[in-house]
Design brief:
The protein is α/β, with parallel strands linked by helices. It has helices spanning about 30-35, 35-45, 70-75, 95-110, 115-125, 130-140, 145-155, 155-165, 170-175, 185-195, 200-225, 260, 310-340, 350-360, 360-370, 375-380, 390-400, 400-420, 430-440, 450, 470, and strands at about 10-15, 20, 50-55, 60-65, 85-90, 230-235, 240-245, 245-250, 265-270, 285, 295. The strands form three sheets. A five-stranded mixed β-sheet has the order 1-5-3-4-2, sandwiched between helices. It has a four-stranded mixed β-sheet with strand order 6-9-10-7. The chain has a two-stranded antiparallel sheet with strand order 8-11.
Length: about 475
């Protein structure tokens, strides 16, 4: 070993880490790997780069003054790195008190990298054609963290938010980068993360649907305008307008249709960018100012004058808000179900849930059976069944272990419940649907307030407490 036993001349030496005396550390470190795994990984790769400090004692030993964690980490990999750099300095007479003061000062004044600085380092290292996994290995951090940091680096809006406020995790900021091109969504979701982080997944699902709907409406609007139609694309029907089926042509009560309304100056087609589903765009014929153009309300249709405007608006907005919340919550719930069903072991009391559903879940099962459980392949991660071929679930069951067969059975029953649900199931759930959501809660699902309404209508009170675009946009 390159160990010096005589310390007449202070200086830098390379010492066996086990020869250093660690008898007065102000930190309590029982397991350095558990306490600081990143440091241990770094030292194992590169050795100790920054020298520790020690004082010689009257017996010729070195008593460590600074760098206890580095020494302990080096002792775990002494075969790869047999020595550690040590700066040896003489101790003064006031040493005992001063030692504690110095250790305090060294540890409390040390400042690590901010997350913004981490992002900058990740970005600069990526310029050397290093993959996230390679950067993570060299920096002794996780590949997920590097990937998150690089995502933030590519998003100007998210990077600026990180510089302004470093209170969220790097992974949370990375989740925002998906919405870089939509300033409204980005700002709303940033506010959600800061004020109600548990609601982020639901709000993000809501914005994804809204973005898909906007894109679909924009494409449909271009096609309709090319045919000469007047098209209004918006989140809500304009205030002075009404759908034709809510109106009569005049006081004589003639119903309005697209044909007999085509000559009206207020004739237009409305595309709702914030509808419940993003898959289909259905143009709705409207009159942009029905009162101005002499039309009258079709009172039997529940139209604009069927009941007091404030009552209509309050209840309609409530239903729209809750239905939209349900659709967004469904996206999050099904992603969580997919992760659950991909595991090797079922959740607690899965057997009881299976047996109970087979015993009393007749309504849900009967709806799903004729269609061969249409959601099960999606939830279990299988390809959709093709005509005249064996169903993917049956093919999987033929080779499945007993444990996997149990998970597939659970997936079939969960798929049946999911198939039975509608976007307004929060209003009048069946007893079995109530049991289903109680079970999900017992399995640890973080249910949205609208899902909790299935068993507790008062959960709707939480809607008003959430400062998210999901609520405001509704």
């Amino acid at each position: 070993m390159n160990t010096v036993k005589t310390w007449e001349t202070p200086g830098l030496y390379y010492v066996d880490p086990f020869e250093l005396v660690l008898d007065d550390n102000s930190r309590e470190i029982d397991d350095i790997r558990a306490k600081n795994p990143g440091l241990c990984d770094s030292v194992a790769k590169y050795g100790v780069k920054t020298a520790v400090t020690a004082n010689p004692d009257e017996n010729g030993n070195l008593r460590l003054r600074y760098g206890f964690s580095r020494v302990l980490a080096n002792r775990l990999c002494v075969d790869q790195h047999p020595t550690i750099p040590v700066i040896v300095v003489e101790a003064g007479e006031e040493d005992e008190a001063q030692r504690l003061i110095d250790q305090w000062d060294e540890n409390t004044q040390r400042v690590g990298y901010t997350q913004a600085e981490e992002v900058q380092i990740f970005e600069r290292m990526a310029l050397f054609d290093l993959a996230p996994e390679e950067i993570a290995e060299k920096l002794s951090t996780s590949a997920d963290r590097v990937t998150a940091g690089l995502a933030v680096a590519r998003s100007a809006a998210t990077r600026e938010a990180l510089r302004e406020d470093d209170q969220l995790t790097l992974e949370q900021y990375a989740a925002l980068t998906e919405f870089e091109s939509d300033p409204e969504a980005h700002a709303d979701l940033l506010d959600t993360l800061r004020s109600w982080p548990g609601n982020f997944a639901f709000a993000a699902a809501r914005w994804r649907r809204k973005a898909a709907r906007r894109a679909a409406c924009a494409e449909a609007a271009d096609e309709l305008r090319a045919r000469g139609e007047v098209v209004i694309v918006d989140d809500e029907l304009p205030d002075a307008s009404a759908r034709l089926h809510d109106l009569h042509a005049d006081e004589n009560g003639e119903n309005l249709t697209v044909d007999n309304h085509a000559g009206c100056p207020g004739h237009a087609l409305f595309l709702d960018t914030d509808a419940y589903h993003s898959e289909t765009v259905k143009p709705v014929p409207i009159c942009t100012d029905w009162a101005q153009h002499g039309h009258t309300p079709a009172t039997n249709s529940g139209g604009p004058a069927a009941r007091p405007a404030e009552d209509l608006t309050a209840e309609r907005r409530r239903v729209i808000r809750n239905n939209k919340a349900w659709v967004a919550a469904q996206d999050v719930r099904r992603d969580t179900l997919k992760a659950l069903l991909a595991k090797k072991t079922p959740p607690k009391q899965a057997e009881q849930f299976i047996a109970t559903t087979l015993m009393i879940g007749e309504h849900e099962l009967q709806k799903a059976l004729p269609r061969q459980h249409p959601l099960v392949c999606e939830l279990l991660g299988y390809s959709e069944p093709a005509p005249r071929t064996i169903h993917p679930v049956l093919a999987e069951l033929r080779k499945a272990t007993a444990a996997r067969a149990k998970m597939i059975t659970l997936g079939l029953l969960i798929a049946a419940f999911e198939h039975s649900l509608r976007k307004d199931s929060w209003r009048a759930p069946t007893e079995e649907q109530k049991r289903y959501f109680r079970t999900l809660a017992e399995w640890g699902f973080d249910l949205h307030w609208v899902e909790r309404m299935v068993n507790d209508p008062s959960a709707e009170d939480d809607a008003d407490a959430q400062p998210t675009g999901e609520i405001a946009a509704a």
